[in-house]
Structure formats: C-alpha cells, structure tokens
Request: fold
Amino acid sequence: MYEAFWGLSEKPFENSPDPRYLFPSAEHRRAVDLLTYAVREQRGGALLTGDYGCGKTLLIRVLVQELERDGVQTTVINYPKLSGTDLLREIVYQLGSEVRSNSRLKLAHEVGRILHEGVKRGKHTVIIVDEAQVIERQSVLDELRLLLNYQLNDRFLLTMLLVGQPELREHVTALPQLDQRLAVRSHLHTFDLVDTAKYISYRLGVAGASRQLFTQDAVEAMYNRSYGCPRRINNLGDLCLWTGFQKTVSEIGADVVESVA
Reply:
C-alpha cells in the first residue's frame, strides 16, 4: 500500500522468515558459522537459543539454504510438541519415508536405515528441531538424545540442532546425557542502538530504498520502544511507514514512532 510512496519495491518490515532479510550482525554471523561448523565437521549436536523475536527461525532458514547447496540432507521439525513416537514418525516422514506402525522400534530402525543410505550416497543428515522449548517431557528430549547413538567408528550419522527460547538451556541441562553431546552452543541477544540503526537501514536497502527514511531521533525512539528486539522493530517500522504515508511526510521522525508505539 505504501511502497510506491516511499520508493520501495516491497515492504521492508515483514515478519516472515525471508532469508534475504537476515541482518548480518556479528552475533548472527557467528551463530551461522558455529552451526555450519558443527554440521561440516559432523558433530553430534548443537544448541541455538535466543530471546523471543531475535531471528532464530530466520537464521535457520539461511542455514538450511547453505547446507542444501552443499548437498546436506536437512529436515526441520517446526512443532515438536509431540510424543516420542510421533516425533520419530515425523522425522521419518520428513526424511522421505513413512512407517505406519506405532512401534517405536520399527520407527527407530527406519531412521537408522535412512541415515545409513545417506552415508552411502555421500550425504550427511541434519535434523533441526525449532521451538524445542515447547517439548514438555524429558522422555522426548531423551528420544532425541538416542538418535545421536547412530554413529560409525569415526563420525556421527547425523547432526541435531536444537533451537529455542532461553528456557531450552534449562531443559537440556536437566538431562546431562543430552547436554554433554551438544558440542556447539550459541545465543542470540537483542540489538543495541548501533545494530538497531544498522538493522533498519539494512532492511530498507533490501526493499529498494535509495535514501534514509528514518531520522536519527526516530531510530532512537524505535530502539527505546522495541528494546532492540527485531520482531518489535519490524512491527513498529511497518506502522511508521504506513502512518507516514497517510500523513504524507517526507521522512519518519520520532513523533511518528511515538504515535504508533
């Protein structure tokens, strides 16, 4: 609605996980590098946590793109609030097979078969469990741990990435057998003022902006109102651009930010 008014080719502050919009902050780059290292070196497990709205799912989308270009077989479980058996069945399904039996043993055997077939084809397998903090039963986390028993003498047959909000770290710590198998850990924080300014500018640039649309005072107001949380910044930014369009202003000032916050 407001794109043409601001000289944009698309809306810059959508909350959809479009990999083009992953702002490469130092912390986000380090997280991608660490997780990529875990996969390429075929480590057993890795943990990515972050505050609500800090871009974990978007980062995972970027990681999956990079891994698939490298020929890695990936699967992402987006809603892991399942029983251990249903979780195994979903993993089997996403890896391209299907077992109708409710037998945990048959499902586990099928996972093993798929992993070994992947090795024969020269493909490493990555299982990503997003929003893993919603897993309520320790027995389900233990089921995930048991998947890391699929190994050859010198390597794991899969890498498991657990992704979630900060409380996931507590869930993992409560299960030492799983905690000890997570070789890589990374945590995403909210932005400071400097990265907030860079984030706004970056997203506007991806959307085709040829000039700065937010004044420095507006950026500071955005930071103060969003606490540096990317999702909150997006919500405010979108409303600011719409309001500025309605008022036909030439740039977004702090007054506009305060009017929509």
